[in-house]
Specification:
Layout: E1 2-4, H1 7-19, E2 24-29, H2 35-47, E3 50-55, H3 75-84, E4 89-91, H4 95-98, H5 124-139, E5 143-147, H6 151-163, E6 169-173, H7 193-198, H8 201-213, H9 219-233, E7 237-245, E8 259-266, E9 271-278, H10 280-284
Parallel strand pairs: 1-4, 2-3, 2-5, 3-4, 5-6
Antiparallel strand pairs: 7-8, 8-9
Catalytic activity: (R)-pantoate + beta-alanine + ATP = (R)-pantothenate + AMP + diphosphate + H(+)
InterPro entries: Pantoate_ligase, Pantoate_ligase_C, Rossmann-like_a/b/a_fold
Protein name: Pantothenate synthetase
């Protein structure tokens, strides 16, 4: 497994693979890898000739009061996870390598960002779009793999690829969960023992909302009930509990379309997100 830190070397590697007729599977991450990332790597390995994963904590995604400096980092551990999952290259650039100067061009995401996490994290998805645009150019992937745990990010990336005509296939992979249903996340390490016991309530609330929607057509009422449920059963505060169309992330007039049920809950030192997609076909079963 190669560790590449420079843009020039990354581009040379990618161009060499493509010139040899090989496909490239790409797994972009911010490190502190867990089983969710590993699942993306395994799928990329199964579907491509070579696999590249990037580890880069992107400062453009963090607001002034967010956890860029606290974001967990452990490259030795990440290197082991990547190697154990047959990754060919880890692209591990420094911030000054990716952003040597103040940018003269700024990407701005207009749609799919005014709900869920984007509602309170102004500029976050602009940062995501900027770094992914750079990474797509540097890695030149055939396929790019993202976890549905951050379904809003998947929706934004889908729009980025479509609007800017990147020759990249977006592969959205199911959320990987603990045995008790909690979605795998790098931020789970910040939960206290008691909060960790409470955290599975998040996924249970999503499934309960899906059940309620089969009987209750008043979406506002379902959301109110679920906020009360989560805040009663946990010590966290609900940032949002939403039921929206997907991938548009807009208010839904009825339940006869693909919908996302999504929530964010702020615990003392960790903000957790989760979601559940429901299709009309599923509701008919």
């Amino acid at each position: 497994m190669k560790i590449i830190k420079s843009i020039q070397e990354m581009m040379a590697y990618s161009q060499g693979q493509l010139a040899a007729g090989k496909s490239i599977g790409f797994v972009p991450t911010m490190g502190y890898l867990h089983e969710g990332h590993a699942a993306l790597m395994v799928r990329a390995r199964n579907e491509n000739d070579c696999v590249v994963t990037s580890i880069f904590v992107n400062p453009l995604q963090f607001g002034p009061n967010e956890d860029f400096e606290r974001y967990p980092r452990d490259f030795a551990r990440d290197e082991m996870v990547a190697e154990n999952n047959a990754v060919d290259v880890v692209f591990y650039p420094e911030v000054h390598e990716m952003y040597p100067n103040d940018p003269s061009v700024v990407l701005h995401v207009k749609r799919r960002v005014h709900a869920l996490c984007g509602k309170t994290r102004e500029g976050h998805f602009d940062g995501v779009a900027t770094v992914l645009t750079k990474l797509f150019h540097l890695v030149s992937p055939t396929r790019a793999y993202f976890g549905m745990k951050d379904a809003q990010q998947v929706a934004v990336v889908e729009g980025l690829i479509s609007d800017l005509n990147f020759p990249v296939e977006l592969v959205a992979c199911p959320t990987v969960r603990e045995e008790d249903g909690l979605a795998k996340s790098s931020r789970n390490v910040y939960l206290s023992p008691q909060e960790r016991k409470e955290a599975p309530v998040l996924f249970r609330s999503l499934k309960l909302a899906a059940e309620l929607l089969e009987k209750e057509k008043n979406i506002t009422l379902v959301k109110e009930k679920m906020v009360e449920y989560v805040e009663t059963e946990t010590s966290g505060n609900v940032d949002y509990f939403e039921i929206l169309s997907y991938p548009e992330l807009e208010e839904v007039p009825c339940s006869m379309q693909t919908m996302i049920i999504a929530l964010a809950v702020q615990f003392e030192n960790a903000r957790l997100i989760d979601n559940l997609l429901i299709t009309p076909k599923e509701r008919e079963q």
